[in-house]
Amino acid sequence: MHKRYTLIATFVCLCVIAGLGSRWGNAHEHTSADQFAQALELQNSGDLEEAKKMLLAVDPADLDKDQRVRLWQTIKAVDQRLVGQTDPAQLLDQAERQVEEGRLIEAARDYHRLASHKRASPAQRREAKARHAELSKSVLPVLRARLDEAEVDRKAGRYADAERKLETIATTGVDLGFFDNRRLKQQQAGIAGHHEQMSVMAVSAGQGDEGEVPRVEGDAEYAVEIDVAQPDRPRAADPEPAPRPEPVIEKAPDPVVEAPPAKDPTPRVEDMLGDDVELITEGGVVQVETRPAAPAAPAAKDEAPARQPVVEPVPVVEISEPTPVRIIEEPVVIESASAPAVPDLIERLKKLEAQRRLSEGRQAELRKEYAVARRKFEKAAELDPASEEVQAALERAKARGTTASGPRNVLDRQIQQEGLERQNVYAEFEQLMKQASDLLVKRSFNQAQEAVQQAKSVLDSRQSILPQEDYRNRRNRAEVLDAEIDARQRETEAKQMLEVEEAKAQAERELREKEEMDRDREVDRLLRRAIEFQMELRFDDALAAVNQALFRDPNNEAAMALKSMIEIHQQTDLTRRMREERAMQVTRHSTENLEATIPPTEIMVYPTDWVRITRDRWLASGEDSADTRINNEVKLKLRKPIPINFDANPLLSVIEFFRTTTGVNFYVNWNALRDDASVDEETPITLTLSDIPASDALDLVLRQISTDVEPVQYSIIKGIVQVSTKRELTTTTVIRSHNIRDLLIQVPDFRNAPEFDLNSALSNTSSGGSGGGSSSGGGSSGGGSSSGGGGGGSGGSINVFGDSDSDDEEEDLLTREELVENISELIRSNVGDPDEWLAAGGEVSSLTELNGTLIVKTTPDSHIEVEKLLAELRQQRALQISVEARFLLVDQNFLEEVGADVDIIVDTGSNFGPLVISQDSFGITGSPSTGLPGSFLAATGGDAAAAAGEAGDALEGLTTGSGRALDLSVSYLDDIAVNLLVRATQAHRRSISLTAPRLTLMNGQRAFVLVAQQITFISDVEPVSDGIGFDPTLSVVSSGAVLEVEATVSADRRYVTLTTEPRLARVNQPIRRIPQTGVFNIDEILGDDNQDGGADQGSVLLSTFIEAPEIEITEIKSTISVPDKGTLLMGGQRLVGEIEVEAGVPVLSKVPLLNRIFTNRSSVKDERTLLILIKPTIIIQSEQEDQNFPGLRENPEEYGLDSRFTY
Known about the structure:
Elements lengths: L1 H44 L2 H10 L7 H21 L2 H13 L3 H12 L6 H34 L3 H14 L5 H28 L16 E8 L26 E3 L18 E6 L2 E6 L31 E8 L2 E4 L7 H24 L3 H14 L4 H16 L6 H32 L3 H17 L6 H68 L3 H14 L4 H40 L13 H13 L6 H10 L2 E10 H12 L3 E3 L1 H8 L6 E10 H12 L6 E6 L2 E6 H4 L4 E6 L18 H6 L1 E3 L38 H7 L3 H15 L15 E5 L2 E6 L1 H18 L1 E28 L8 E4 L3 H4 L10 H4 L3 H5 L2 H9 L7 E7 L3 E20 L2 E5 L3 E18 L6 E20 L5 E13 L4 E10 H5 L12 E10 L2 E5 L2 E6 L4 E17 L14 E22 H8 L19
Parallel strand pairs: 2-6, 8-11
Antiparallel strand pairs: 1-5, 3-4, 4-6, 7-9, 10-11, 12-15, 13-22, 14-15, 16-17, 16-19, 16-20, 16-29, 18-19, 21-22, 22-23, 23-26, 23-27, 24-25, 28-29
Helix pairs in contact: 1-2, 1-3, 2-3, 4-5, 5-6, 5-7, 6-7, 6-8, 7-8, 9-10, 10-11, 12-13, 12-14, 13-14, 14-15, 14-16, 15-16
C-alpha cells in the first residue's frame, strides 16, 4: 500500500513537472516580445549596455516579421550610439593597444571613429588623424587585397562574406585611391541591389507559419552549439532557461549540385522554404543560405535511425545536464544553366528545410519544450513525408505527449531516457563519422581526424549506456577510419612534397627564364631609348640609359659599342657647340666695340630700361621709407582741391566734411582737445576758400582752434588722420633708419692743373742718356715720351705738371665724424621742437648714427620732415655742371705776285764789250712776309716755312719747285740775245681749327681736364769725364689744352658763375737745335804711362747739339657768369698783316702795256682770329629724367608704377 502511494505521488510530481515545463515553453515564446519591449525602454532611458544585452537575448524566431526587422535595426542603432558614447580617451587607448598587438585594421577603424567623435577634443582629433594617416600606408595593401577577396566572394555568391569584408574596409576610413574607392562603391552597390532583389522576392513569396526572419549578415556557413543530456551529471530539478548562446561560425566547403535544365520555371519557390532559409540568385546560380537559429537539440541530419519498438517513457526525477555538440549546416548551391528553379530543386530544398526543422525539434526536446518540438517535427513531416527519421521523431514526440499525462513507473522512464540518449549518441556518432568521411574525400585530413576523435569521445563518454557490441563495432569503425585517414594523409603529404619539389624546381626554372627575358626586354628598351636620346642630342640621358642597360647586363656588347659611339658623338657635338659659342661671343664683342665707337650727342644718356630700374629701386626702398604706401595714398587724397565754406560750423561737422569729401579716415582725440586745448565738438569754425588742397584747409582749420600754449595739429599714422594736441601726438614715436652715406661723400677741389711754359719744362729735367737715368725715373734710350716710369724726363710717379697743393685740400676737408655731427645738428635744429631731442634734454626724439645710417626715434610727422630735409640736401648735391671751352682759330692767307725780267745783250762787234741791258726787280718783290704763321711767302723762305708748321707743306703742294705758280722763260740768241722771264703766282687759303676740351663737375667744385702730348728734348749736355762723349739732360714740354674750372650754380638755377683758366699750348716743329762742340784730350782719357815713348796722342773734337723748343701759348684767366646752356666769348686775339710791293724801271714802268714788262708787283695779306668761348650746361637729374621719360614723375601710372612713387 505504501509502495502504491509512493508511485502515485511520484507520478503526480512528474505530471506537475511536465505541465510546468510545457507552460514554461509557452511562456518562453511570449517572453521574447516582452524582452524586446523592455530592451526598447532601456534604450530610451539611456542604459545602452543593458539594452544591448537584452536585445541579444531575444529569440528572433519568437517574433513576427516586423518585430524582427525592428530588432536588427535597434541593435545597429544601439551599437552606433555606444560608439558615440565611448570615452575618446578610452577609444584612443584601445587603438594604441591594437597597434601594439598588431591589429592595425581595428586600430585604423578606431582612429577614424575618434577623428569624427563629437566629444573628442581638437588635440585628440589631430592625433587621431595623424595616427590614422600613418596606419593608412601600412594597411592599404591589406585592404586592397581584402577588396579583391570580397569581389571574389560576391561573384561566388557568398554575399555575407563579401558584405562583412566591405564593411570592414569602409569602417577603417582609409583612402584606397580613385579606382579602388570606385570599386568599393560598386561592390557595396551590388550587394545592396542583391538585398533589394531578395526583399522583393520575399514579399512575392508571402510569409510562413512563424513569419520570415530577416537575413543575418555573416558567413553562409553556420555552426550551432547545442546541448545533449549527460546522464552522468544528474540534477535535482529542471533548470531555468538560460540565454541563447551566440552562433559559432565555421567555414565549410560549398557543395554544388548541378540541376537539370528545365523549360518552365516553377514559381514561388520561396513558399516551399522555411522562415530561416534565404534563396539567393546571381548569374544563373541559385544558393540557399541558412540563418543561424536558436540553439536546438543535436541531430545528425543524414542519420536515418532504424525503426525500434516504441518504448514508453518512464518519468524520472533526476535529469542530466546537456553537453554541447557542434552541428555544421552547409549551404546548398544549385547551378542552373537555364532556370533558377526546377521541380528537382524544389524537392531538395524541401528536404533541406525538413532536416533543419528536425534539428530544431531535437533541440527543443533537450530543452523539455515538447510542444515546440512536436510542431517542428510536424512541419518537417509536411516538407518531407517520406523521411523515416522525421516520422520516427514525430511518433516519439506524439508518444511523449500521450504518455506525459499517464502514469509511468520510474523504470520505464529510465529505460525511455536511456533509449533517447543512445539514439542521440548514435546520431551524433554517425554524423561525425559522415563528416569525417566527407572531409577525407575533400582531403581535409586534420579536420577529418578531429571529427573521428570527436566521434570516439562521444562513444567513450556514453559507454555506460551503450551495448558493448555496439560500442566495440562503432569504436572499431572509428579506428579503421582514423587509420585510413592517417594513411591517406601520409600518402598525400608524400605526393604533395614531391609535387612541391618539382613545382619549386619548375618555378625556379621559369623564374630564371622570365628574369632573363625581362632583362633582355628591358635592355632592348633602354638601348632603343638611348638611340632616341642620341637622335635628339640628349647625350647625358642617352648615356644614363646605356649605363642602366650595362648595369642589368654588363657583358652586352651592343650596349658597350653604343656607349662608345655616344661618347664620341657627344664630344664632337660639344666641340661644335664650343666653336659656335666662341664665334658668337667674338661677334658680340665686335658689336659692343662698334657700339662703343658711337659718339653720344647728349650730355647725359639714360639707359633704355630706366623705368624698370626705377620700379625695382623704389620697391626695394619702399619698406624702409617713412611714408608707407597707405600713408602716401592718404597724402595724395589730401592734396586734392576742395571748396571750403564754413560759417560758424561745429568742429565735429567740419571733420565730418573732410572725411566725406576726401574719403580719408579721421580720428579726433576729443579728450585731449577738451583737457588741454579747451576744444570740443561744438567749437565754431569760420573759413571760406575755393579750390584749396584739403591738407592746407585742414591746417587753417586747426590753427583757428589752436592756442599759443597748446597747438592743435594732425598727423597721418597708419593711414588715419589723427587730430589732437601737439603734446599728445608726440607721445606716438616710431624708430626708422635714414641712409646718409651719399651725403657723407665730400667733393674735393682739384687745384694742381699743369702750367704750359718753358720754366716748368726746364724744372722737370733728368739726366740719363742711353740706358742711364736719374732717381726720378730712369732713362728712355735717348729720348721719347716719358709717361710711365721707364723714360727720361719726369717718369715714375713724379707729376710732370709740378707740385700740387693736395695737402692743403685735405686739410680743408671735414672729417667723417664732423660731417655726421653737422647733419645731426641740422636735423635737431630744423625738425620738430629743438627742445624735444634727447641731446637738448628732451624725452621725445633721439638720433644715432651707425655705419652711415641715421637711426631716428621721433614722431611720424618728424620722420617726414627728416626725409624732406635729407631730400633737399640730396637735391642740392644732385646739381652738376658740364663746361665746354672752345679755342677757335681762323686763318686767312692771300698772295698775289706778278713780275717780268728782261735781259738784252747786244754784241757790238768792236773792242767794246757787249751791251747788256738788264731789268731785275724780283729780289725786291720776291720775299715780303707779314710774320704771321701760315703766310705764303714766309713758308717759301727756308726756315720760315718751319715757323708756319703745316702751312709750308700745304704750300709746296700748290707751287712748283721754284715756289711760283708760273715761271715762263724765253731766250733769243743771235747778235742780239734776249732773255725773258715771267713769274706769276696767286694763292688764297682759309683754315679753321677748333680745340674744345669739355669737363663735367659738381656744383661748387674746382676741377680741370688735360689733353696734351708730352715731348722730351735735350736741354743741356755735359762732357763725360774720363771718356769721349756727352751726357745729355732731358726735359719735358707739353703740347695740348688744359681747362681748369670752378663752377657754381646760381640760386635760381639759371646762371653759372665760372672761375676758369683755359690754356692752349703748341710746340713749334721742328725744334730748333743749337750746336755744341767739345775737345777731348786723348792722353787724359787714356792716361800717360810713358808706354808710347812720350808721344802726344793729340785731342779729339766732338760736336753735338742742344734743343731749344718754341711754345705757342694761349691762356686766359677770368671769373664770369654765363646763363645755362649759353655761350660766352671769354677772350681771343685778332692778327692782320698786309704787304704790297711794286718795283720797276722808272718811266718805262709808267708806260701803258710796256709797264707789264718793266714792273714787278707782290701783294700779301694774312689774317688770324683766335676766339676763346665758354659754354656751361646745368645738369639737373630730375630734368634729364623728365626729358628722357616724360611724365614719369608726374604720372607714374602710365609707366606701370604705383602712384605712391610720386616725389
